[in-house]
Amino acid sequence: MYKIISKRKFYYAFSLALVIASVVFLSMWGLKSGIDFTGGSLMQVSFQNTSRPSVEDISSVLKELDYMADTTVQPVGDNEFIFRFKDVTEEQHQEILNKLKNKYVVTDATTVDSAKDSQPKIEVVTESNKEIGNVNIEAVPVGVSDQASLQEEKFESVGPTIGQELKTKSFYAIILVIIAIIAYIAWSFRKVGRPVQSWKYGITAVIALVHDVTITCGVFALLGHFYGVEVNTPFIAAVLTVLGYSVNDTIVVFDRIRENLHRYQGDFEETVNISVNQTAVRSINTSMTVMFTLLAIFFFGGASIKFFALALIFGVFFGTYSSIFVASSLLVTWQNLIKKFSK
Amino acid sequence: MKISNISKVRLSVLAIIIMAVFAGFLVYPAPFNKSVDWLNSKLGITLPHYWNIPFGLGLDLQGGAQLVYQADVSQVPAGSEADAVAGARDVIERRVNAFGVAEPVVQISGSGKDYRIVVELAGVKDVNQAIKMIGETPLLEFKEEDSSQPLQTDQAQEIAKYNEEAKKTAESILNEVLNSSISKFADIAKEKSEDTGSATQGGDLGWAKRGTYVTEFDTAVFDTLKKGEISRQLVQTVFGYHIVYKEDERGQGEDLEVKASHILIKTKSSADVSTSSQNWKYTGLTGKQLKKAAVEFDPNTGSPTVALEFNDEGKTLFADITRRNIDKTVGIFLDGEAISLPRVSEEIPSGKAVITGNFSLVEAKTLVQRLNAGALPVPVTLLSQQTIGASLGQDSVQKSLFAGLVGLLAVALFMIIFYRLPGLLSVVALLIYGVLVLSIFKMFGITLTLSGIAGFILSLGIAVDANVLIFERMKEEFRAGRPLNSAIDEGFKRAWSSIRDGNISTLITCAVLFWFTTSLVRGFALTLAIGILVSLVTAVVVTRGFLKSIAVGRVENWHFLFNRKKNSESEKQ
Hints:
By secondary structure, chain A is of the alpha+beta class. Chain A has ten helices and six strands; from the N terminus they run H-H-E-H-E-E-H-H-E-E-E-H-H-H-H-H. A four-stranded antiparallel beta sheet of chain A has the order 2-3-1-6.
């Protein structure tokens, strides 16, 4: 059996360091809010059968429209761009599209020229054998599939009020989940009166959960600052899922403690350590299976759920860590403190 | 007859397999249907195909648009906002249906003063056109004069000035008519009359009985003028100044009819000027209560008119409005502009009205189309939109399918390597789990979004959690020296409380996610919740059934299969 609980100070130190670092990142940089929360527009376009213009080139074109002044341009994949700018009306949206299409598709010099060359000049000759003039057939590329085009893959425009509303709602959702979980654990462990009251299991599970979520958010503050990773609605879903998962994992350990308290009448710390050892393999194995699926989503799933999966990966990892090393240790520490002060 | 325990277990396993096969064909009916086709052609019979229910794919997977509209209820009196917004929702739904989008979703969201209408158009090709069509606001309203808002003096002056001009014009035309022969009347009417309906007919109004026209006109044609005579003075009515020509008359007494022509020079009344909404009162009668609109032709003038028919609610309202406003004007407003300002002569209880604007046939037809497409009872503005191109959606489906397969494979390998035979059985249970969940998605028409699929893939990982818990327990029971069968029973029994408590906490999270967030995340919450519920069944019932039905006889001694040490030893220290 591994002496996990007795080495709890190491784990506390490790966790505390991560949590403090996360809080520092969060207060320094904060999370980079996506347009879901701030309001704004996101447009993803792809260039087909034509080379993608440079970032400088396309952003200077976009900035000719005054409401596009603060546009950020991000190249994606081989032939796509993502633009971010303030929220616009549908008319403005169409204006942007038309501007891009006019600039890069219809009047695209290379396409038109090459098409022109392939068209024969037609000479119109009158009966008197006098040439009237050359008629240039306008270059119309044949076959739609070969035609250079600019395609709008995705467009989102969110008004600022909706964004604010979503922020508030997400906040309430998180609070509500935490309260519901404390209540459920307190109820579920209600018969475990001694030596630790049931509500303390609830509080401890929530401390572990806050730990997991703080670190996950800290990681995203870091990613946001250095890689511009944005936080949006799926991220909230991920955080809420981490809440659920973290508690799920902690409960399994607590459940074992509950069971073992009936079996062994010995020292509380020892009982907890036995329980943690008995459940550790299960916790790790379960996390492994979840990690496999999350990694699959991260590497092979669509781009829009990549960071959703990443948030879950961090959340699940620290959720597993805290359920083994932190949550149960906290129960013991709490119990010891009470003993110490009641003496 | 007594059925032994093991037979019972095997029966339940058989039931599970049959169920899984049914569910499997529901998810992927192609092999079944092909076999049926083959059999039918061989045997000359007609067996039916399996149900072919498609997956409901969300906007982000098949491409499409989500549009959020804000409904402006500021003009609607307190208390009836919700009704008005519901009316707008119905109208938008009708317009969207006309657009031919498969299974559009039009929902009201928001509460209090904030009314939103969320429109989801999956697979729509031209979002721009859809937005135009939805946003096109034939806001049809019937309004009554608001006497509490007196005309501003400049407006009154404007009317007086206009009417004076009209009178001068009318007088000069009257002179022209009187100075030329009667045969010229029609030509002058064609050229000068402002009654567009009759002008093209040379001012001819056709045959009419007493009571057809407004009082002043009636008096002129029935009492003052003789047959073949033109009025020497202008006849003034609410419409303006008329030059009346009584062409003919027939019949006696009650059946007396006259055939008259006229030249009209219009005047303006207060109603014409005060078309801005401030002088008009909300009556509650809007496009919401409109049953249908149709083009009709005025039997007298032959000009096109727009006939409206209201539903029962509109009928009552319209009767009330006309009763209240006899001899007053009721304004018909389209998009805030007066299109017709008819004067009410009597109460109309039939719920039918005719708009006699000076329409051309094309104008009348367009108006009718727009009205039938539905006039919005409240104006709406587009708050936010999300559009996903079809190719991006297609790409997402393929990617997430692949991700799902990779995830499944990784989980399966891990379970088999780590837990051997029980692991293999749990993978079978996981496959059954997958098939059951997918068939539930199909049967209940749950819309799959990208995050929904993520929820499902994630639940694959979570689904084996219960099995991991159980197998770990079984290992402990082996170590404690229990034989296989009782180790299985004990493992399941002891793991149950953990499984239950752990999953309930995740279900709580799903519930909150479902109620508190927007549609795309809701998909995730729903699929995850369904996954957890189904996994409880498959991990406990299915795996247990398989294990029990296999763990008989000599299997007991094949320790390798259970990753079980030969001699039961106590826990490692």
